[in-house]
Structure formats: structure tokens, C-alpha cells
Amino acid sequence: MRSPRLIFAALVVGASVAGMGLLPPSSVRAQRASSETFELAGRTVRCESVRIVTDNRLPSEGAAAPGVLILNPRMLREQPPLVGLFVFHHECGHHHVGDSELKADCWAVDRGVRDGWLDQKGLKAVCDSFEDAPETATHPSGRRRCRNLDQCLATAVAALPANRPISTAAASAIHTRTSSMPPRLVSGPKLVGSGTLAYSDPTPCPEPRGAKPNDAIGHLLAKDAARPGGCR
Q1: How far apart are CA 51 and CA 92, in angstroms?
Q2: Residue 128 pLDDT > 60
Q3: Are 90 and 18 in contact (CB under 8 A)?
Q4: CA of 155: how far to CAs of 42, 112, 149, 159, in Å?
Q5: Do the beta carbons of residue 91 and residue 63 sit within 8 Å?
Q6: Which uninterrupted H or E stretch holds 224?
Q7: Cβ contact 88:40 at 8 Å
Q8: CA dist 213 to 198, 216, 218, 224, Å?
Q9: Upper half-sphere CA count for residue 104 (Cβ side, 13 Å)
Q10: d(Cα 122, Cα 145) in Å, to the nearest integer?
Q11: CA atoms within a 13 Å half-sphere pointing along the CA-CB vector of 103
Q12: Percent of the chain scored above 90 by pLDDT?
């Protein structure tokens, strides 16, 4: 997840740390612990049948190799908890979509939206963790990954079942997509009446009781109350 300056070639040859892809089995040497589950950000996470390996010497928050997901607990503690969840699911995504960093990002976003732990604010934290890294031979630039994350979030929200309650992630994404939309006229105006009112008449009416000078409304009411044939 970090920039290429953190690579230690003695540990992982040729692997970028801006979100590592699948590594060859020979690259996984220093295994400190191995299990099928891991406690991360208050959640117990797993990657189906993939073994989870922890190694504080890994030059990245996470990496993936065939059948293995590698995490560096020390570096994960330096990131916000939600970013750690994304790192885990990104690396798990490599076991489903292959080497593609953009597809692994999308896989992680989809899981985050469906499980309710990722929203627009969290996505920004993930994007910030890319540190605007430049493009490398194996990884897209940080900016390209951020643009891809936005598209992934919109797709994941659209795929939510219609009868499912809107989660924080869905509500945030929907608000982001619709807040800039201009209001749309649902139906045109409807004419309910027409006509004119005349405030002058050649036949003067008596001054209504209590009316003030130049009281147009009072005069109008007096005319309305007049009998047919009277002052109009």
C-alpha cells in the first residue's frame, strides 16, 4: 500500500509496496504466524481457504502469494483501522481476480459495501494511503487507483438488493452521486382559473362600515355583497 521507497529487495524481489500483487511461493520465507482468521479493526476476517501469515519484516502492509495472504501487523497499526480492513480485502481479492491491482481494489470495495464497513469517507482514507504514488511497471498510479475506487463504489452500491436497508456506505455514495444533480420539474404548472378584477365602476357604492380610505379590498367585498341591480 505504500510507495516503492519502502521496498527491501532482500525480502521480496521485484515487488512494489503500493498494494502488492500475487508473489511467487519462493518469496514467502519469513513466516511468524499462520492461521485462517485474523483480528483486524474489531473484526474477525478470513479469506476463505487462504492461509493468513503475519510477518513484521514484510516491506508492506500486505501481500499475496498462492494460497497465502501475508500481513505486517506493525505497519497495519500505523494505518487507520478501515485502511487496514481494505488492505486485507485487497490482498484477498488477488486470490479471486488475479494480479490486477484495479480489480483487487474493486473486489475489496464490493466486500466493504456489502459488509457495511466502507463508505465514501472511508474510501477517501484509502485513497490518501496511496500517497499519490507514481505508476510503476506493476502498479497503476495512486490517482488512477483513486478514480477507479470511485467507480467501484458506485457499481457496488448499484448492485445492492433493492429490499436491503441502505447502509452507511450506500447512503453516503447515493448522496455523493445525487447531491450535485439539478432539480427536475416533475409536471408543468396547471391553470386553475382565469379572469380579471375591476376596481373601478361608474356606479359608486356606499362606503362600507369600518372601511378605511383607499381600502380596495373593503370596496370589493361591498360590491360582492350588493344585491343584483344595486351598485356594482
Answers
A1: 10
A2: yes
A3: no
A4: 27, 12, 10, 6
A5: yes
A6: helix 216-225
A7: yes
A8: 18, 9, 10, 18
A9: 25
A10: 15
A11: 10
A12: 50
pLDDT tens per residue across span 34-88: 789 999 999 999 999 899 999 999 999 999 999 999 999 999 999 999 999 999 9
Task: Report domain extents, the chain.
Answer: 4-178, 198-232
3-state secondary structure of 46: strand
- Residue 16 pLDDT grade (very low, low, confident, very high; cuts 50, 70, 90): very low
Closest CA to 53 of 42, 67, 68, 66: 68
Average per-residue pLDDT for the chain = 74
Choice among 57-61, 121-125, 159-163, 195-199 with the minimum mean pLDDT: 195-199
DSSP result, 95-122: HHH-S-HHHHHHHHHHHHHHHT---HHH
The tally of CA atoms less than 13 A away on the side-chain side of residue 210 is 4
Query: Angle CA(130)–CA(121)–CA(149) in degrees, nearest 5?
Result: 50
- The set of cell numbers assigned to 163 is 429490499
d(CA 126, CA 185): 38
Q: How confident is the model at residue 212 (pLDDT cuts 50, 70, 90)?
A: low
CA angle 66, 68, 69 (to 5 degrees): 120
CA dihedral 80, 36, 72, 1 (to 10 degrees): -60
As a whole number of angstroms, the distance between CA 99 and CA 95 comes to: 8
Task: State the Rg of the chain over Cα.
Answer: 34
